[in-house]
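USER: Note each token:
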Amino acid sequence: MAEWNEFYQNEDEQQEEEEAEFSGGDYKVSGRDSLVFLVDASKEMFIKGEDGQPSNFDMTMQVVRSVYTSKIISSHRDLIALVFYGTEQSKNPRNSFKHVYVYHDLDEPGAKRVQEVDALRREKGAQLAAQTMGSGETSLGDALWCCANLYSDIKLRLSHKRLMIFTCRDEPHGGDSAKDRQARTKASDLKETGQSEEKAASVYRTVFCT
């Protein structure tokens, strides 16, 4: 977990740098920060490490919980969403995207959400995830599209739009070049749209569990 904590600390430092870059004179970008966690729910994510080490999914839930609690303390008005892809079940606005499960819509963090993330941790959490979402086919392009749609009902001014992908798979589509192209295209579209609409840095990162 030291590596994950270090990553999150670096994330805070970079956010401060970005805010400094976009401030000058009497003008400074204002508004709420927003962050979407897009988490791989494939079977590979639930495999435990050697000597009973936590699975990649469990470590990811620990990171998500840490961010939720940190936001509640320091920036409770920021918006966070938790979305799973590669699921068997589908749950998203109008169920437009198969194998994408929106666990938390973009909203302010709170104690209830922390409890719901806790419910997905450890062995019982893995069982709950399997029962609730399951593991199915993967289309990262559809998942990114779904995440973009989460912003459509947000009327608030947002200073940043962030999307973080957690996965342990270098080839989530199993060599399907068409799906790979779709995902790259959608990621590019998201970044360009975020920059033009918000007039601020829109950061999209991929975090690979190891």
In short: Residues 1-5, 17-29, 195-205 have pLDDT under 50 and may be disordered. The chain has six helices and seven strands. The first strand starts at residue 23 and ends at 24. The helical segments are 2-21, 56-74, 111-118, 122-132, 140-149, 177-198.
